[in-house]
Amino acid sequence: MREHGTLGTPMVTEDFVRLRLGITQFPDVSGPHPFKFQANDPAGNYIVALKIDPRDGKVSSPVTTNTDGKGLAGLIASSQDSVVVDHDVCPNHSSSKYMNWAIVTHAQYLFVANAGSNTLSLFLINPHDPQHPTLIGNPAPTLGETPVTVSYSRKLKTDPTPLPPGPLVLIADIVSNPSSSALFASVRSNGRDPSLLYAYPITAAGAISPARTIAYPSLNATVAEIVTIPRQQASCWVAYAPRYAGYAYVMDAAASDVTVVDARGGKVEEEVGVVHFETPTAGTGALDTKVDREWLYALTDDPVDSRVNVWALESAGRGLRLVQGFEIFREVAMLPYRMGLAVWPAS
Asked: Nearest Cα to 289, choosing from 304, 280, 277, 273?
């Protein structure tokens, strides 16, 4: 397993999983689709698994499982580019980590980044009982500090040597391209400088080159279209619907709006545009979001009335209809630092 950047952002390899589990091949997956997020609790992290009703997409029956790691409160970069715990980005937010992919599924495996203990937890998912994943061994060290996002690759080879330090700002996401020829890390703006996208070449032997390049803004990566989000304040999360090719859904942490974007035309969908939903606390919206089949899920950002909102995707993905606001604070706990979303099997 490798880490990337000053903050430990683990890139999980198939070698790592095989060595961890002592397996030679990955089994096929089938069965019900549970919905998972992590509590991100500094006192002891755990995941919450909810059952998804295949008829209407609603979630229910929460089950909690410890990760044997610790969570951490919201992180931002200060004016000196140092990492601090703060609440200034969105004053009324629920103190999530403002990062994507803190909990990820692949095949029958679940990976959870424990930001407060610098570890990664690996779970095995039983297809006959997917709400009760089994923790495999002890959480693995990420070889870096404050892991906030995790990615998985079948091509990369396990190497215990850490990469050179990355940029001294917060890494928001890490992912390899479909051919696993490059690893991309998105870097959040510190308020003064623009956001960046770093690219690390992957060699034919499956190793990550330490010679990173700035993929954007530069000629290494291009922007097909810049989409202006109406009334946006903190639009940091987006979900894409594979079943309805061409539509994406943008969440705003500081506004209770979902913006429907026509990715094919590079513009906000004309007929639907922005869909508003109610939150008890002004200046809050939604954080992590995920599409599973014909439903859109999001963790709301309200610090008091924490929910999982469920929308049905209608009109070939252009329309949204709110079908549920599952009350996390009543059914599980307050979970002020909750974050990350994953659906199994990954869709």
From this structure: 277
| Pairing relationship of beta strands 151-153 and 11-13 according to DSSP bridges | parallel
Do 39 and 49 meet the contact criterion of CB atoms below 8 Å apart? no
- Which uninterrupted H or E stretch holds 17? helix 14-21
Structure token pair of residue 172: 């928001």
Q: 268-281: b or e for each residue (b if 16 or more CB lie within 10 Å)?
A: bbeebebbebebee
* Residues 172, 97: Cα–Cα separation, whole Å: 9
Nearest CA-CA partner of 102 in 215, 237, 216: 237
- The model carries a pTM of 0.80
Separation of alpha carbons 271 and 262, rounded Å: 11
**Tens-of-pLDDT digits for all 347 residues of the chain?**
433 334 445 556 666 655 655 555 544 444 557 888 999 899 999 999 999 999 999 999 999 999 999 998 765 434 344 443 334 444 444 444 556 678 888 888 899 999 889 999 999 998 889 999 999 999 999 877 788 788 877 676 654 444 444 444 566 778 777 777 888 887 776 666 677 778 888 888 888 887 777 766 554 556 667 788 888 888 878 898 888 878 999 998 888 999 999 888 778 887 778 899 888 888 888 889 999 999 999 998 887 788 999 999 998 888 999 999 999 989 998 888 888 899 988 76
> DSSP string spanning 159-193?
--SPPPP--SS-EEEEEE-TTSSEEEEEE---SSS
The count of residues in the chain is 347
Hey, is 276 helix, strand or coil? strand
Structure tokens at 272: 């639907």
Map 25-52 to HEC letters.
Answer: CCCCCCCCCEEEEECCCCCCCEEEEEEE
Q: How far is CA 12 from CA 105, 119, 130, 271, 303, in A?
A: 11, 12, 21, 41, 32
